[in-house]
Design a protein that fits this description.
binds serine; two-stranded antiparallel sheet; alpha+beta
């Protein structure tokens, strides 16, 4: 029988069926914003919502669980743009809560990859933990790999950097075993081996053997129960199954790429820069759609700030591609359509998602336009052949949020061949960063620890202001921060719109 085309949906279903047949209970994806956990802004791994159960609390649905979890990782947002890196992605996972351990976990992974997905066994490699002062060489994992028939020369023992997984500063973790697929691309050098980032190897699955709980003092305490926590990247595994190793060419992302190509008139693959820019726009708008679906609005703090960065970076990269109009809406509509069945919450929140996206895009476009006008004016006053001053690039960045790489593009367009004083710009940036650091320290010193009659009065004023804001704007207003010095008070709060002068007047009153 012909094998169905390996789409993302096909993989999700195969995975579910395989683990259900082995006694696992299938869980729906938890929301991206963790419920009742303030230690992290977004869920970034399938195991996050399961932490209490990995630490020993009994799970109501049993000891074997599996799911496909929505994840968001933004700590390396600038790294997005290659074939595999995403902010938003889906992670397939199976868990043993004190039930099976390394032998079964590895044997099932092997069976799933080679039998169900029919990946060529010769292209699969494993890495295991080499041991250190915290835990020994992972003999058990090595034996489990040898038992399924993986030859010793395709098993690599690596250090903690590569083969140890823990979610945070504290909590459950342990040695892991990663499964790597050889794309067949040439090795980058004699030391090129699984876990090398040159593009030859794709990590498709990570099996973590959670035997320890990391305590606040950095020590590891053996857990009462030995758990398995696995994570398989959905997009990259589909890319492997389809044989092109480019996540953006899979069925979940390619329609978005096509949308951006149509909007910009540029071709994916035209050159590395354009390809990268298209990927960033696609990745960020897809992620923004999922964040917006959880009723987060763009702001300058916390979740809202992550969302704002995603949208604004997408707009910036859209501009670099030459898109001048508002365009996010089209990409977001396509995203909602692509995930209609699996994540109906996108369709349910469609109006909110589109409305907030367009508002933020308009806001940022205005800022960019103002910056652009200033740049045009300054350039027109500059002597022919003169170097563009670093101060101008800095002012645009500082006052208009105008990103330096965009200024570079604009200068090249408006004044082809002009030089920019990047050294001067960098110097100003350093001074600015140092000042911000000092200011942050100063604010800290000037906090409530320094109680003077002025700061006590201003502290009381924050409460009055909070109440006034809620009366005028509504109960959705929440305080998210404040800073008090003897001279002034700053109050940060959540509200989806800019306040009108009339609202400000009422609040003041
Ligand atoms: N928690 C591990 C990871 O995120 C495996 O699921 O890679």
């Amino acid at each position: 029988m012909a094998r169905p085309k390996p789409t993302a949906d096909w993989l999700r279903q195969r995975y579910r069926r395989f683990f259900e047949a082995r006694g696992h209970h299938w869980l729906p994806s938890a929301p991206l914003v963790p419920e009742g956990d303030s230690s992290t802004l977004f869920i970034s791994a399938g195991m996050h919502p399961l932490v209490p159960y990995l630490l020993g609390e009994p799970h109501p649905l049993g000891k074997r669980l599996a799911d496909c979890q929505k994840c968001l990782r933004t700590e390396d947002i600038e790294g997005v743009g290659n074939e595999q890196k995403h902010t938003f992605f889906e992670m397939l996972g199976n868990w043993s809560l004190g039930d099976y351990f390394k032998k079964e976990s590895i044997a099932w992974s092997w069976e799933f990859l080679t039998q169900e997905l029919q990946l060529e066994p010769e292209r699969l490699y494993a890495t295991i933990f080499a041991g250190n002062e915290d835990a020994p060489y992972d003999q058990e994992a090595e034996e489990a790999w040898l038992a399924v028939g993986l030859p010793k020369e395709r098993i690599f023992a690596l250090g903690k950097e590569e083969n140890w997984w823990e979610a945070g500063e504290t909590g459950p973790g342990g040695p892991d075993s990663e499964i790597w697929y050889d794309t067949g691309r040439p090795a980058c050098g004699p030391d090129c081996r699984p876990s090398c980032k040159c593009g030859k190897w794709v990590e498709i699955w990570n099996n973590v053997f959670m035997q320890y709980n990391r305590l606040a003092d950095g020590s590891y305490q053996p857990l009462k129960q030995k758990n398995v926590d696995t994570g398989m990247g959905l997009e990259r595994t589909v890319a492997v199954l389809q044989g092109h190793y480019d996540n953006y060419r899979i069925d979940l992302l390619w329609p978005l790429v096509e949308e951006v190509m149509a909007l910009s008139g540029r071709e994916y693959g035209e050159n590395d820069e354009v390809t990268r820019q298209i990927r960033v726009v696609v990745d960020h708008l897809r992620a923004a759609t999922f964040v917006l679906a959880e009723k987060i609005t763009p702001s300058n703090v916390q979740h809202g700030y992550v969302l704002r960065r995603l949208i604004r970076r997408a707009v910036r990269f859209g501009r670099l591609l030459g898109i001048k109009s508002l365009f996010g809406e089209k990409v977001i509509q396509k995203t909602i359509e692509l995930y209609r069945e699996i994540y109906p919450e996108l369709t349910q929140e469609r109006a909110f998602i589109l409305d907030e996206l367009v508002k933020e895009e308009e806001r940022f476009n205005q800022v960019l336009d103002r910056g652009l006008r200033l740049l045009e004016k300054e350039l027109s006053q500059l002597a022919r052949g003169a170097t563009v001053p670093g101060q101008l690039i800095f002012d645009l960045y500082q006052s208009y949020g105008f990103p330096p790489e965009m200024t570079r593009e604009e200068v090249a367009r408006l004044r082809p061949g002009s030089k920019i004083d990047w050294v001067g710009f960098e110097k100003l940036m350093k001074v600015h960063q140092e000042k911000s650091r000092q200011a942050a320290k100063g604010l800290f010193r000037g906090g409530l620890a320094e109680q003077t009659p002025e700061t006590i009065r201003l502290h009381t004023a924050t409460h009055l202001l909070h109440q006034a804001l809620r009366q005028v704007l509504g109960d959705q207003v929440h305080q998210v921060g404040s800073a008090i010095t003897p001279e002034k008070l700053r109050f940060d709060f959540t509200h989806p719109q800019k306040l009108t002068p009339e609202e400000l007047r009422q609040v003041e009153e």
